[in-house]
Design brief:
single chain; 15 strands; four-stranded antiparallel sheet; alpha+beta
Length: 230
């Protein structure tokens, strides 16, 4: 007997359905697999003994329509992210809509911030709105592209996980060390609003107008929300 993650069938089917209506993105095997992995990394596994195939998943979908909706939403997110930064090209363009910064100059390049929202019992929460702001100004951090949302709303299939990729910031010169302070503002109906602060130190560096998407990930400690008192 083999252990099988039933979520693989859900996710593969969702990606297949969503890609059928897409005409302007890459649908190669590499991109499809990256989309599937993106979803699976954000979903809670459901293990069974051996795979009973797609027929089994279809029967379960009828019993759990909300899961189907959540996975479709996560699948759309995966398509948006991967199609803008396909791994077979290994590069993405960096743009700044407001002032068209010259990324060829010395800049601070941020890792991908990843974290999770949980309740006081350390159970993951969904339907929470998470906004990443600069702690010193209170202004929302600009993302590296439209496929990264700020604020972002957590769907159940994401198991409370969020991620942000901040737009690089120009530096005065190469090799400068600077500490950046951020605040995560988290809101959910029935819970007290939370603000979680964290700080990261970066050195300015030089990059071409395109950068490698294999950015480092920065893991943020779990953000805890407490229920409002009656």
């Amino acid at each position: 007997m083999e252990i099988y993650n039933l979520m693989e069938d859900y996710v593969k089917h969702a990606i297949k359905v969503l890609l059928e209506d897409k005409e302007d993105i890459c649908k190669c095997e590499q991109c499809r697999m990256d989309m599937i992995c993106y979803c699976l990394n954000k979903t809670k596994p459901r293990y069974v003994i051996s795979s009973r195939g797609f027929v089994h998943t279809r029967n379960e979908k009828r019993e759990n329509m909300q899961m189907n909706i959540d996975i479709l939403a996560l699948g759309q997110e995966a398509i948006d992210v991967i199609s803008h930064m396909p791994r077979h090209e290994q590069k993405i363009k960096i743009e700044n809509k407001e002032n068209k910064k010259e990324i060829g100059k010395s800049s601070f390049f941020f890792p991908v911030f990843v974290g999770r929202v949980v309740d006081e019992d350390f159970q993951s929460l969904s339907d929470a709105k998470v906004t990443l702001t600069f702690a010193d100004t209170g202004e929302p951090a600009e993302m590296i592209g439209d496929y990264w949302k700020n604020p972002t709303t957590l769907v159940p299939a994401m198991d409370g996980t969020f991620s942000f990729h901040v737009q690089p910031l120009l530096a005065d010169e190469l090799g400068i060390k600077k500490n950046f302070k951020f605040c995560l503002e988290i809101e959910k109906e029935g819970y007290e609003k939370a603000c979680k602060y964290f700080e990261i130190a970066l050195f300015s560096s030089i990059s071409s107008r395109e950068i490698d998407i294999a950015a480092n990930f920065y893991q943020i400690e779990d953000a805890i929300l407490f229920k409002e008192e009656d």
